[in-house]
Amino acid sequence: MLDLGFVRANLAQVKEKLARRGGDATAALDGFEALDKERREKITRVEYFKQQLNVISQQVAERMRSGQNASAQIHAASEHKEAIIDFQRQAEAADEALQAVLQQIPNLPAESVPDGNSAEDNIEVRRWGTLRAFDFAPKPHWEIGEQLGILDFERAAKISGARFAVYWDAGARMERALANFMLDMHTRQHGYREVLPPYMVNSDSMFGTGQLPKFKEDSFHCEGGDHWLIPTAEVPLTNLFRDEILDEKQLPISVAAYTPCFRAEAGSHGKDVRGLIRQHQFQKVELVKFATPEHSYEEHEKLTAHAEAVLQALELPYRVMNLCAGDLGFSAAKTYDLEVWLPGQNVYREISSCSNFEAFQARRANIRYRPQGQKKPEFVHTLNGSGLAVGRTWLAVVENYQQADGSVRIPNALAPYMGGETLIQPKPR
Asked: Residue 140 has what pLDDT?
């Protein structure tokens, strides 16, 4: 969430930056000035009547000490008290309306974010790896997985409906192996602290990272209580320090978690209808950082490099995209997307989004730190990225390492996590 004082003092600049996002990003600001003016007017009236009440109270005391009739002053004091209560209520209502406006305003794009309206305007930063030259027509992962008997969409649909998958045998083992491989890399090589958080969170947590109230319909809510299935481990990890004040010496803090993720919007876009790309439930290793404002963009580059390291170790070709302003997520100030090459579909697909939210989430979740030598705490900067989406890594391995006979070779770095298994072959029927 943006700072009220900053928006008030820099409204034209805020509108200009939001306009870079395109669409109706500035629409939420339409009533801001009127609401802010109303709120301040009501607060001014409250202060005025409080001052007048103090004067009248003194008059009442003086008249009573001198034995004079103070009924008129007492009546006036009563009227002033009612006016204070009334204007306080009006001020509170205006403040709630103003906060509702602020909650709908997305983050401001960083200066290094390119202009643009959609994914077509994203800027490629770099590429890594060599695309494999196949001497046969590569297949998409859903065909390979079903032919190998390791991926089952039909039974998943019977159990749960569309946008779910069942993994069998080596398919299930490789999903688990990939998660362990990623966690070991991030904790042992990159210095992240591993966390196993709850998979259900309360509304305060969802508000803190920006899912509520704007994206309520995109998430799964549990009836009968205040619990939401997490859309990503970003939510519980970021909220670990909600309403806390950290010491600057603790920063940066880097945490990682492997969790399932649940997203209600998975089937709403009419694209990626085949395979594992867009599921209601999927697994992900998430990386989250808390940093000082002075170092958050340095940490952003590090976090992105840590996600890239997984792809490099698995020898999966990819490219890094700097998202344009119109393609940024609601809470992000800047995002790099890592897009892995999928030969079976002849396309690059997102496998990780690495974002710097600056103070946007921290202000919503009230996560602060105390700079050395200062008494007043400031808001931290939060960052996160997938390190990586496990299901999408699974399908990238299957498509990139497929063999002409229908088998799939295990990447060298992953083989130890597969018990030394180096090849997934069709099981005899």
From this structure: 98
Residue 269 is predicted with a pLDDT of 52
What's the rounded Cα separation, in Å, for the pair 216 and 16? 27
Active site residue 353: yes
392 is known as an active-site residue: yes
Does 41 qualify as catalytic in the annotation? Answer: no
Rounded CA-CA distance 252/183 in Å is 19
Give 292: exposed, middle or buried? Use CB within 10 Å, 0-12, 13-18, 19+: middle
- 9: tokens are 């003092």
What are the Cα distances from residue 326, in Å, to 78, 116, 162, 228, 244?
Answer: 55, 5, 30, 28, 33
Report residue 134 as tokens: 């196949």
How far apart CA 370 and CA 250 sit, in angstroms, is 10
> Which one is catalytic: 219, 353, 355, 386?
353
Catalytic residue (one of 163, 278, 349, 364): 278
Q: What is the pTM of this model?
A: 0.93
| CB-CB contact of 123 with 114 (8 Å) | yes
Q: Examine the residue annotation and report whether 126 is marked as an active-site residue of this protein.
A: no
Question: Which pLDDT belongs to residue 271?
Answer: 59
> Per the structure block, which two tokens stand in for 193?
């602290």
Which member of 21, 263, 363, 364 is catalytic?
Answer: 263
123 close to 321: Cβ distance less than 8 angstroms: yes
Query: CB count, 10 Å around CB of 164?
Result: 17
Give me the average pLDDT of each 10-residue run along the chain (429 residues). 94 95 86 92 96 96 94 95 96 93 95 97 98 98 97 97 96 98 98 98 98 94 96 98 97 98 72 84 98 98 98 98 98 98 98 98 98 93 98 98 97 97 84
Separation between Cα atoms, residue 126 and residue 324, nearest integer Å:
15
Q: What's the pLDDT score for residue 313?
A: 98
> In the numeric block, which tokens belong to residue 284?
């992900």
Residue 388, preceding peptide bond in cis (omega within 30° of 0): yes
| β-bridge partners, 291 | 381
